[in-house]
Amino acid sequence: MNFAPLPSVDVAAVPSDGLVLDVRENDEWAAGHVEGALHVPMSDFAARFAEVTEAVAGGRKAYVMCRVGGRSAQVTQYLVQQGVDAVNVEGGMLAWDGAGRPMVAGDGTAAFVL
């Protein structure tokens, strides 16, 4: 059985105004995240799926991110199966931070990847 390759992009390919969907847990989000990202933890994903479909209405692409790319790959696969234009961000927040892309923390302190 052949599976289509999972659509994925490098952190540098995420546009500054792109819809970043962060599927990490609350403590990870609070430590540091992409400003303006939509936070829907993977553990809440099924219950909050309507928020995601609303955010991608009109064919907007979702750039799905977690810490290193494992959880986001699962969520991306699910979204693609639902007909959503979604891509997994390779390397996740660790790659984002490593590339020097901007992050913010929940409490205004220096952001970091937990």
Which sequence of strands runs across the widest sheet? Answer: 1-5-4-2-3
* Class per helix and strand makeup: alpha/beta
- Mean pLDDT comes to 94
Helicity level: 25-40%
From the alpha-carbon coordinates, what is the Rg to the nearest angstrom?
A: 13 Å
Major sheet description: 5 strands, parallel
Low-confidence stretches: none
Number of strands: 5
- Give the termini distance in whole angstroms: 37 Å
Number of helices: 4
Question: What form results from the Cα inertia axes?
Answer: globular
Strand proportion: 5-15%
Describe the structure.
The N and C termini lie far apart (37 Å). The longest helix has 12 residues, at 70-81. This protein has 114 residues and is an alpha/beta fold. Strands 1-5-4-2-3 form a five-stranded parallel sheet. Helix content is 28%, strand content 14%.
Concise description?
The protein is of the alpha/beta class and 114 residues long. It has helices at residues 26-31, 49-55, 70-81, 92-98, and strands at 8-9, 19-22, 38-39, 62-65, 86-89. Helix 3 (70-81) links the parallel strand 4 (62-65) and strand 5.
Name its key features.
single chain; 114 residues; alpha/beta; 4 helices; 5 strands; 14% strand
Strand-helix topology:
Layout: E1 8-9, E2 19-22, H1 26-31, E3 38-39, H2 49-55, E4 62-65, H3 70-81, E5 86-89, H4 92-98
Parallel strand pairs: 1-5, 2-3, 2-4, 4-5
